[in-house]
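re: ur msg from earlier - yeah i can do the s-citryldethia Coenzyme A complex, just paste it... oh wait u already did. ok heres what im feeding in:
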Amino acid sequence: MAVKLVAKPGEVEFPKGMEGVIANESRKSYVNGLEGKLYYEGITIQDLAEHSSFEETFFLLLYDRLPTADELAILKHRMTQYRNLPNEVYELIESVSAGYLAKPMSVMRTAVSMTALFDEAAEEETEAAFEREAIKITSRMATIVAAINRVREGKPIVQPRADLSHAANFLYMMRGEEPDEFDTKVMDVILVLHADHGCNASTFATLVVTSTLADMYSAVVGGISALKGPLHGGANQRVMKMLNEIGSADNVENWLADAVAKKKKIMGFGHRVYKAMDPRAVILHGYAKEVTKRAGTEDWLVMAEKIEKFMIEKLGQKGIWPNVDFFSGVVMSSMGIDDELFTPIFAVSRAAGWTAHALEQRKDNRIYRPRFVYVGPATQEYVPIDER
Ligand code: SDX
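and the outut:
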């Protein structure tokens, strides 16, 4: 049935925000929203969080299967080789991050863009080049975020080490000291959980850019730009602002009742696809118990659990449940991570999904070009300016 392309505003029905619209086929991840389940290539997120690593999960997303021990060692070596940044990028980060001048996500967007200018292979159009750029960019995102963090803290930038895993090296560059096994595991789980999630807004942005056959850096910058928004990547930062605004567990019920009555969006809740508990929130909640105990921040967890209980009772039947952002803020804050770095860390992980989807898109590409329903004025004469 032909869709009416010229109509009066509101005359033609279509799903706002492309809700439920199929963009393409993909095998990377499946989000079962009704049952609250998530799989990467058919493997449950619970199994990946417990048994896998960010590097192994990245291999799975890139090549659609788990690696052998040798293949994993090769990918780890390749990622390690790319950890360093061009000096000019470090200088850029130092010049704009000090004194909290620019938002970390803005600095990250620019730093990734600038890294491309010093990468002679950035515009190379071969399968091997696209794959290499995917690994290079994903590896370097961690170095960029850690450098931004150090400059914001007024501390010297820490150079990457080759003898640490991606998660351990990231925390080492963030803190200036080697993390213990528990913190490394928690960061690795955070990176595994955020690596991919179907056709979310930032992955879709990456795919639209890729579909014009633009380069991998441009596609990732598109993803970073989309993730920057508070309705997508920025929510966990606003969860912490909400906890601080509520102040204590005793205030939770009154604060929330007022917010819900005013139809305010409660950060860390609701999802376009999940109409049940986000399985990633369950996994992060599990780690939050030990993380907050070690950090002495159990009060945050008590508040968060009270908010969770209230929201599920009040809005659960409307399909509004905790999402990945709800407990991630409590976990990362308790690990001493500044809330301005939460979304950049989301991007450090999601670069794996963005680049894996970009490579998948290139294998069977067609440019994304949807339509608008035109609701503007019918033809009208051009009126010379002195007659207006
Ligand atoms: C991520 O897509 C992904 O996969 C994203 C992600 C990923 O891994 O890539 O999972 C990561 O982005 C998680 C979501 C983080 N964002 C937030 O926590 C921000 C708060 N959440 C909402 O803004 C909202 O739930 C969205 C944006 C996540 C989803 O919005 P939709 O699907 O467009 O839903 P909607 O805004 O149309 O709301 C539908 C109804 C409305 O009520 P009615 O007007 O029908 O009465 O649900 C209500 C909304 O008011 N609602 C909420 C709510 N979210 C939706 N009410 C209170 N609090 C909320 N958080």
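cool cool. The pocket of s-citryldethia Coenzyme A is lined by residues 17, 197-198, 200, 231-232, 235, 263, 265-272, 320, 323-325 (CB under 6 Å). ping me if u need the other ligands too
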